[in-house]
Amino acid sequence: MSHAEQLDIAIVGAGAAGLAAGIFAAEAARAPGARRRIAILDGARKPGAKILVSGGGRCNVTNVEVTPEDYNGGSKTVIRNVLRAFDHRRTLAWMKDLGVELKLEETGKYFPVSDNAHTVLRALFDRLAQLGVEVRPSCRVTAIRPEEQGFRIDVAEGPSILARTLIMATGGLALPKSGSDGAGLVMLERLGHRIVPTTPALVPLLLGETAGPAGAYGELSGLTLDARLRLADAKGRAEAEYEGSLLFTHFGLSGPTALNISRHWLRRRLESPGERPPLLFGHPKLSTPQIADEWLRKAAAGNPRRHLAGTLHQLFPERLARVLAGDSDGPVGQLPRDRRLAVAQSLAALALNVTGDRGYTFAETTAGGVDLGDIDYASMESRRVPGLFLCGELLDVDGRIGGFNFQWAWATGYLAGRAAARRAA
Predict the structure, then answer these.
(1) What is the CATH number of domain 5-200+361-424?
(2) Looking at the whole model, is its pTM more than 0.85?
């Protein structure tokens, strides 16, 4: 035990937040002229897997506009203060300093000009190497224990490590093949931190087969369209609502709109076990069945001989139009009132038979995690364990699609890294 390696700062986890924390810690430690011993420990053989698969392998590093409303989970006040400390403009300047040239797309997302996530990962590793920060792959941390002079870190192979300060950036449970298995949350809970129960977030949803259009996803597999998904409460009011690209698959729903609303559906089910919260599908321009019925009546008046499927094709792709028309695919002008109202319901608020999700293996991030009340948002230092800093996905914050989770990683890594360097000094 007396021969344990000594570090000034140990960072557990070499994802986006951990790599950023390492860079900012080393830069802050170097500024006064004192070089600190900093190492990033990661259980994966090749760290940074989440960076490489994000954004379809292109790595959406941030967004043209980032606000607390783009996030779910903990206190919006805490989120706002963290984002102010290192906002998207600072991310753009930082990426430029790292040598990563970015481009802004129409969606508001920033990607590397290379369209290759390796560009971002290489730049992060290059800067760490310049700063003398060691990244240790295949170094799985099994336990952390506070001691008088810092922390003792046990690893799966080799002697334990002593660190004056410790940054935990172990992520959540999403994409477990990258090494995110929730072990960090277990360690933090043992140290007294409150853990908000976790669920997948930004995850594809499963649909069950039923009669009628609500269960016809198999016929629609491969179809992409613009749509609205709304999570309704018991009185039919919207708890969450997203519009945009939606993809029907062989198992159910994917695409940005489904991924964005997935965490809300799963949190509702977590709060009410056994319940299947109603998820409503609709056309973006038809917000209510009443508006949809008015549209149908005008369409019928304008061309009463056109078949219903042809009429609905003005709104949706042909395959979906045929499914929504069903057995009533006759002249729209001859549609009985009750059938017209049923079609209007399907156009604006079709109740989908969501049965579950594809799990953490296919999730892009994790909802839940360490309660934000357990951290000092100015430094990301734990309020329960002095000298311990937390950043990234393991906190109870998850953003929507669009680079927001990377922005959270950069911002929290910035605060944790700089504060850990001050503490180590």
Answers:
(1) 3.50.50.60
(2) yes
